[in-house]
Design brief:
Elements lengths: L8 H11 L2 H16 L6 H29 L7 H10 L7 E4 L7 E2 L10 E7 L2 E6 L2 E6 L8 E2 L9 E3 L6 E4 L3 E5 L7 E4 L8 E6 L5 E5 L2 E5 L7 E5 L3 E7 L2 E6 L2 E5 L7 E4 L3 E9 L2 E8 L13 E5 L7 E2 L15 H5 L5 E7 L2 E6 L2 E5 L7 E5 L6 E6 L2 E6 L5
Antiparallel strand pairs: 1-2, 1-28, 3-4, 4-5, 5-6, 7-8, 8-9, 9-10, 11-12, 12-13, 13-14, 15-16, 16-17, 17-18, 19-20, 20-21, 21-22, 23-24, 24-25, 25-26, 27-28
Helix pairs in contact: 2-3
């Protein structure tokens, strides 16, 4: 049975294989043994000792080769099941989608079946499925612990930037082509919707509990109370990236900071509006969250942080910051793994899975069991590109994002 490696194992693997090659070690030991056995020394005891040593050398070399082969077969969190799927499909995609079914303890690469080098712009999981919006269209799969089997939808082979849940079926958004909805979920029958606002460059869509539809666009917020037949603009302003609801309260995030409404989206007030860009806003459990940046890139916090996470436990009235990752005690390590993890500055996404909060930072995925008071790294990023986090039925997905806010 092949061992599944935790994220930290990859650091050991990379350094181990860089400095140690069992074949080289074995050939060297063979030369040493050959030199010993051909000496003209007459003492039989020395020859016996040399023979015993050679047996130990070759045994160690064989074990080293097996270890190296095992490590080479295991990438960061890469499972044997994923390797099997890659072999069967002939695909070479890797490092795009990672899955955890044990609360973030281990992560498995489940990118097999996707095109190599695929650029993902948006990811979302709901209704027992996981969706990827990519540069070449929409990919979907059942969200199951055994890992997704990806299928590409045969419509609109262009950029799909976002995916949102809907009562009738999921919405997918293409900035250049508008909003589409699957008429019956799972059928692959898509139709254009919200065509009355198609020239507004839609960024987000939300169906509220009372049946209304709210759309965030590059020119503000629009609302429909009749299933998208007619629309009214309820907020005039700059780009709105996200809208979320909790009870009667709505929040919207975008270029003008965080907005708040208590009357179903008819009127909106600013919560943060001083040089603030709300890059990602939403709901986790019974709280709102927002990830704040700055409209002026030259203005950053004294800590050098450009993205900051805030949480509201009182329906958006007050907000507290919970993204501080404390520096560890100094550690002397050959591979200096902690040095990379603890360069953590910016945060990009957050979800809640059971008792844990998961955050996507610029150095990887961190987990908190005390609602953000303390954080521990559970998955390290080995190259540039933050993760979008999403979850369905306690199966967590970390999707390497190619762009966007």
């Amino acid at each position: 049975m092949q061992k599944t490696f935790a994220p930290s194992d990859s650091f050991f693997y990379n350094s181990f294989t860089s400095f140690y090659t069992p074949e080289i070690a074995c050939s060297r030991q063979a030369c040493i043994f050959a030199a010993l056995i051909h000496q003209t020394h007459q003492n039989m005891q020395i020859r016996v000792i040399a023979l015993l040593l050679s047996i130990q050398f070759f045994t160690a070399c064989q074990q080293g080769q097996e270890v190296a082969r095992s490590l080479a077969a295991a990438d960061i969190g890469f499972s044997s099941a994923s390797a099997g799927r890659q072999k069967e499909t002939g695909q070479t995609a890797a490092g795009i989608v990672f899955q955890s079914v044990d609360g973030g303890q281990t992560w498995h690469d489940v990118s097999a079946g996707l095109p190599a080098g695929l650029e993902v712009w948006g990811a979302s999981a709901f209704g027992g499925e996981v969706f990827l919006g990519t540069e070449t269209g929409l990919y979907r799969s059942s969200a199951v612990p055994t890992g997704p089997i990806w299928q590409k939808e045969p419509f609109l082979n262009e950029n799909i930037t976002d995916i949102f849940p809907g009562r009738a079926g999921p919405y997918v958004n293409s900035i250049d082509n508008g909003l589409f909805q699957e008429t019956i979920s799972g059928t692959g029958d898509w139709k254009p919707v919200c065509t009355a606002v198609k020239n507004k460059k839609i960024r987000t869509v939300l169906e509220t509990a009372d049946g209304a539809i709210l759309i965030g666009s590059d020119s503000g917020i629009f609302k429909s109370a009749d299933g998208g037949q007619t629309w009214r603009q309820v907020f005039v302003g700059d780009m709105i990236i996200s809208i979320a609801a909790m009870g009667e309260v709505l929040i919207g995030g975008g270029y003008q900071g965080v907005l708040r409404s208590t009357d179903g989206g008819e009127h909106w007030d600013n919560v943060f509006d001083e040089n603030i860009l709300a890059k990602n806003s939403g709901r986790i459990g019974d709280r709102f969250f927002t990830i704040l940046g700055t409209r002026d890139p030259s203005v950053i916090s004294p800590e050098g942080i450009t993205n900051r996470l805030r949480i509201s436990s009182d329906s958006g009235k007050t907000w507290q910051r919970i993204d501080r990752v404390p520096a560890p005690l100094p550690v002397q390590s050959v591979f200096n793994m902690d040095a990379r993890l603890w360069q953590t500055r910016d945060v990009y996404d957050i979800i809640q899975a059971g008792k844990y909060l998961f955050c996507s930072f610029d150095t990887g995925v961190f987990r908190s069991s005390d609602q953000g008071k303390t954080w521990e790294p559970v998955y390290a990023i080995d190259r540039a590109g933050p993760f979008t986090l999403t979850m369905s039925d306690q199966v967590i997905y970390a999707v390497r994002r190619s762009g966007g806010c």
